[in-house]
Design goal:
Blueprint: H1 10-71, H2 75-123, H3 127-135, H4 138-151, H5 158-174, H6 176-185, H7 192-230, H8 236-246, H9 252-268, H10 270-295, H11 304-342
Helix pairs in contact: 1-2, 1-5, 1-7, 1-11, 2-9, 7-8, 7-10, 7-11, 8-9, 9-10
Length: 349
Amino acid sequence: MSSENKQPTNKSIQKELTYIQKVWHTVAIVALLVVVILIARVAFNVLLMVLAGTLIAVYFHGLGDMIERKTKWKRGLSMAVSVVGSFIILAILFWFMGTKIANQVSVLSHTLPNTIHTAKEKMAETDIGSQILANLSDDNSDQLFTTAKQFFSTSFGVMGDLYIILFLAIFFTTNPDLYKNGIISLIPEDKKDLGRHVINRISLSLKGWLKGMMLSMVLVFILLTLGLGVMSIPVALVLALLAGLLKLIPNFGSLVAMIPGVLLGLTISTNTAIIVALMYIVTQTVVSYVVTPIIQKKMIDLPPALTILAQVLMGTLSGVLGVILAVPLLAILMILVDELYVKKINPVT
């Protein structure tokens, strides 16, 4: 029999089987990595929802602490007033302002396309405005819209996240010691005091952030409602409410909130748009750099550049929820690094 008709040797067969095994091993490793990455991303989103629920629980307990100090009531009664009172206040606000806000939102949604068209015409009358419009081509606008749409999306959906967050907040508010002690039980015995110290410091920092953020949102809403109302800007209440809510997103939120106000100002006159822009800038500056730092004295000082990087990273990973929680999450990480690596403190007695 000729050499061409010889059957494959055992050595060549073994070689071929080894190669196939390596290919399948590689495929399995890649598939496993993909699954791990997907699970990690979902787990990270769940972690953010846990943090959001914790922040709401911290708010209820902080308000309960204040009620207990002022009235000398028992803890249970103070917490009941804190939770029930907060929901009652929200219900009253929606009752009195809901119809007006809904009407103004409807007006804004119907008039916004015409407002943008009018603003473009007024911008085209100036050299700087013409250059800006030239850079904002249709392709760039579509790309910006697509990016914004992706940016303001989350894995489970905003409403789904909200339901989960509210349920977590209720559980954390009802029995916080159960979860706190559960975390401490995972820490080695000789480090439990340090663990309690770190948890208490994180709680104090989150309370400071919440107090500053909530007061900032209310002040921005009140100041812009008065200012835009005096300027006779249409749908002033909605614009002020939007600016107050977007205060949750440091740096970027203020810029986004200013856009519709300036566009509506342009429909009146260029000078009105400039005054409206200055009003937004002054209000945000006073609240951000004067009022908020006074309230947030106990919160860790966060470098602005690091805050922006954290927001961009969190926005890419988890959408709007990540952007909102970027600052408290960064504060928690910096406290952990400070306590566990930088200071190397002894366990607190």
